[in-house]
Amino acid sequence: xxxxxxxxxxxxxxxxxxxxxxxxxxxxxxxxxxxxxxxxxxxxxxxxxxxxxxxxxxxxxxxxxxxxxxxxxxxxxxxxxxxxxxxxxxxxxxxxxxxxxxxxxxxxxxxxxxxxxxxxxxxxxxxxxxxxxxxxxxxxxxxxxxxxxxxxxxxxxxxxxxxxxxxxxxxxxxxxxx
Length: 178
Known about the structure:
Elements: H1 5-12, H2 17-27, E1 30-34, H3 39-49, E2 51-89, E3 93-131, H4 137-140, E4 152-159, E5 171-177
Antiparallel strand pairs: 1-4, 2-3, 4-5
């Protein structure tokens, strides 16, 4: 039993104490991880307990408004002319002639306005793999015993190949009396 992985490294010594210590730890089927402030030991404990699929919710909302004002103007002009000539001979004599011309112009003016509002809202979630127990939890979320904690210590009991009913995983949080 030791408080941290560096404790194993120091005790094993030799050319490659880190690999030797990890090899030794890998042979243990049962581990009990208690609170400590060694980041390397806590990261190891997190990796041993593994990752789980987690869902994180997300939410977004938006509101937009728009106002449009406009004006249109235009001119038009029409010109035209027509003429006709005619004659007839017979018992009498007649000659017809006519011509004409038309001109017109006009203006048109218009005004338009518009206003719109839209609201959007979306909710969802994303899934990702995260450590079941974050390494920082070993330093901040476990009871450390003593009178202030009712002489109770909390930790993680890990066992290879086992599925605890209480947690549904191969580890569970446990309480020990000092």
